[in-house]
Amino acid sequence: MAIEVRDVTKRFGTFTALDDVCLRVGDGALTALLGPSGSGKSTLLRIIAGLETPDSGSVRIGDEEVTSTPARTRGVGFVFQHYAPFKHMTVADNVAFGLKVRRRPKAETRARVQELLSLVRLDGLAER
Amino acid sequence: MGRRRLPSPRRRPTSPGGLAGRVGARSASALGRGLLGIYLSVLVVLPIAALLARSSHGGLGAFWREVTSPEAQAAIKLTLVVSAAVVAINAVTGTLIAWVLVRDEFRGKKVVNALIDLPFALPTVVAGVVLLALYGKNGPLGIDITFTRTAVAMALLFVTLPFVARSVQPVLLELDGSAEEAAASLGAGRLTVFRRIVLPALTPAIISGIALSFARALGEFGSVVLISGNLPFKTEVGSVYIFGQIQNENLPAAAAVSVALMLLALVVLAALTLLSRSRSKHVR
Amino acid sequence: MSANAAKSPVVGGGASAKVSRLGLRTVALGYLALLLLMPLAMIFYRTFEHGLEPVWKAMTEPNAVHAFWLSIELVAIAVPLNTVFGIGIALLLERGSFRGRGALGLVIDLPFAISPIVVGLALVLVYGQAGWFGDWLSEHGIDVIFSVPGMVLATAFVSLPFVARETIPVLHELGTDSEQAAATLGANAWQTFWRVTLPAIRWGVVYGVVLTTARALGEFGAVSVVSGRIEGQTQQLPLYVQDRFENFDATGAYTAAVVLALLALATLLAMNLLTRRTRSRRAV
Q1: In chain B, which among 133-162 make CB contacts under 8 A with chain A?
Q2: Does the predicted TM-score (pTM) go above 0.80?
Q3: What CATH architecture does domain C50-276 belong to?
Q4: Which of A26, B114, B165, C45 could join C272 via S-S bond, C-beta 3.0 to 4.6 A?
Q5: Where do the domains of chain A lie, and which CATH numbers do they carry?
């Protein structure tokens, strides 16, 4: 699914983080944003994920206009700068969170968590 | 194989709102705020408003008359004087206790540290009874402080014990000894080191502890009411006077003196805040 | 040489430093003994001095039993209310966006600044017969003052701030990252609160609940004003202590006091154990 950002502007008070930004990431592409501190990289990513709303402009994912869709239904995976783990939960519960919140059956959740942990070779640490 | 540390985070600007800032949650949040508003109004805001309204009911003249009646004056004066004395004592003993808890090591220190909070946890009326058991009639020491101002002071010392100590403790813990050691190596004696290096660093915490102690002492009731005998003009403190007026259904007098005490507390706290601010300018 | 010993600069020889350290320790511990420990020990002694039987009789006295259960009832209502609303206040201040933060902060600090007697008076001025709602309440046959609902209000007022004040710094430190991560993973506001926020702040909340409970159990002045102290009906444990004391029933008073003191010590224990868990720096 392609991501398209059009004419996005975002201000925080008097500080303009993004000024009329346009970006298109093609389906299946891997894109890196490079820039100095304060250039608006995080802000743009947060707008794409739905954690911020732009003051003007639009965001499309696939064919859908998602600018005002909240993060929880937008379906964008987001990794935080400091990982934002759920510290009071085990590794397995951290991985399972997205599924639990959608009330997937326990067996399905368990299997999927196991699969993902094996993928990154963390299966021994599931209960930590 | 070292891991490179991520640079320390600069707080990026983000929109506020967190949990409550999303569309679906907005109505729930409005309901929650509404409930909270009702709870706080019913519980706190309305009663305080009623208090202020009643105390100003008859205008400034009536207020002044109630506040300056002989018995009220005596009670207010006693409260102020004893509270000030108690707070001054606490400044010293609280700092001392904090010092010993932080800088000294001895068996049972952890227990003593926990016990400092006893006056917070113990009901005030029990504090009064407890002091009477030892220092009242039939006490084993042969002292009887009931019906004296000493009793009032002791009760207030009991209930305000933790404030200065707990305020100073964390500051003392954070103090690293290098400034003191430098002073010592330059020839300063222990007392000088304390007076010129440690004390200035502790002063804001001490003042903050004093402020809390004072506010608490001004309004204290439970520990004083049994032990002091509540003799008007002798051992009757402000809160007891107010209680008496309520019992006599003299609500205007009670409200007026209540507000007077609150204003006095406010003035003293404001003065202490200013003092603390000017102090911290010096320390820099 | 322990790290602490290294902190205090030793000047002028080990012996004199040791003497002054012992001296300070003695004064501090002596002060605590005279003010806290000995009176507390005395009351335990006096209560059990004539054996367990008089104590048992005092504890099973109908008014005593009623007072005990009334205390439990008041706690059972006030503490959950203040816990829920306390968390709500903390969320509002740390995660919400609204004007009037200062006002909200003031409201939750008020119970610390006001004398309990004044709290009672303020409640009477709204809900009492001559109060703002007095007529409306009697028309509808609702008794607030001189009855249990009034006591609930008084108990809730004085124990209001603790959960909020303990939760706010913990919420602050937690930051919004994990909550936003939960959002990107599809959690709605309630799920985020229940699964991510609340577990992360739970120790702050628990500590606040412990303080709230201790305060609610021990409240004396405010309930004294609003309850009318009708024995067997509107006396909770602290009021019962006073009642027994004024009726020269030393054993009865001491027994109830000892029960409250034991609950206070249990509170201290809980506070101490909980401090070991990761909590933000405590503000007194």
Answers
A1: none
A2: yes
A3: Orthogonal Bundle (1.10)
A4: B114
A5: 3-74 (3.40.50.300), 91-125 (no CATH)
